[in-house]
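Hi C.,

You asked whether I'd gotten around to modeling the 49-residue construct. I have! Everything is below, sequence then structure, no commentary in between.
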Amino acid sequence: MANEITTGMGRTGAWFGYEHYSLHPDVIAIGKGLGNGYPVNAVAIGHDA
């Protein structure tokens, strides 16, 4: 599982922060930049899970 709520979407130069490492998470928690200031969170589950 990758927690992308703390990194924000696109703030590290990649779409998700884990893409800078050789990680392939099954589940990603997404938030922060997703709601553009409105408190919205989501969970993305990979097709292999």
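If it helps when you're writing up: The beta strands are 2-3, 27-30, 42-45.

Thanks,
B.
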